[in-house]
Specification:
Blueprint: H1 13-31, E1 36-37, H2 39-46, H3 50-58, E2 64-65, E3 69-71, H4 72-83, E4 89-94, H5 98-104, H6 108-111, E5 114-120, E6 130-131, E7 134-137, H7 142-148, E8 153-156, H8 160-172, E9 177-180, E10 193-196, H9 199-217
Parallel strand pairs: 4-5, 4-8, 5-7, 8-9, 9-10
Antiparallel strand pairs: 1-3, 2-3, 6-7
Helix pairs in contact: 1-4, 2-3
Length: 218
């Protein structure tokens, strides 16, 4: 397997944003027992031009063979290495309300190497409840739990005012990756990675595109 992570800092965000889609489609092809696929065939499935696919993958070495296309399992494994899902990442969820519990119950996380090790909340009515074999713990246990379980990623599904305070504590506790569902951007040092998920913004984008579609139909 090639060293797929070489010079990844020079890869554009647009290319990186497409990699999970490639990974998902290739996983479906493996399930369908497809052994190889051309960039043209993959483009038809993904609604991306074959040229774009080749350009994207050439950033990491190409992986294709002229007249053969791509070996699906090999390409899937290579992209997995690039995305860092070839190894397990321990995570915890802070905020065990409806969204937090839904994320904890999502089985595909573990299939992708993201293992939910614990759930936390400050609500005494939730503490002690079982979610998929995990007992919701009080926030007082957070620091020690991170240390004992080698936690890399924290998922925040809490109000934005609390998220700012908790995020700073997480940084002090050694967390270097936050998946943030709180409706606020977190101002943290550069040596921590934050992925913000603003559900309302995504819904507004959908609303805009729906409105545009209706206007074009009129």
């Amino acid at each position: 397997m090639s060293d797929s992570k070489t010079n990844n800092k020079n890869i554009s965000k647009a290319v990186i944003s497409r990699l999970p889609r490639y990974y998902r489609y290739l996983g479906e092809l493996i399930e369908a027992e497809t052994e190889r696929i051309s960039s043209k065939e993959l483009s038809e499935k993904m609604n991306i031009t074959a040229s774009q696919i080749r350009q994207d993958l050439n950033n990491f070495g190409g992986f294709g063979q002229t007249g053969y296309g791509y070996n699906v399992k090999r390409l899937y494994a290579e992209i997995g290495v690039i995305l860092g899902v070839d190894k397990e990442h321990n995570m915890l969820i802070i905020g065990s309300g409806n969204l937090g519990r839904a994320l904890a119950n999502y089985s595909n996380f573990q299939k992708r190497g993201f293992v939910v090790k614990g759930l936390f909340d400050k609500n005494p009515e939730l503490i002690g409840k079982d979610v998929k074999g995990l007992v919701i713990q009080p926030m007082d246990n957070l620091k020690e739990f991170i240390k004992e379980n080698d936690i890399e990623i924290a998922v925040l599904t809490i109000p934005k005012t609390e998220a700012v305070i908790i995020a700073k504590k997480l940084y002090d506790y050694g967390i270097r990756g936050i998946w943030n569902f709180a409706h606020t951007d977190l101002n943290l040092p550069k040596d921590i990675v934050v992925e913000n998920v603003h559900l309302s913004e995504s819904l507004m984008k959908l609303s805009y595109n729906l409105s545009s579609l209706k206007e074009n139909e009129d």
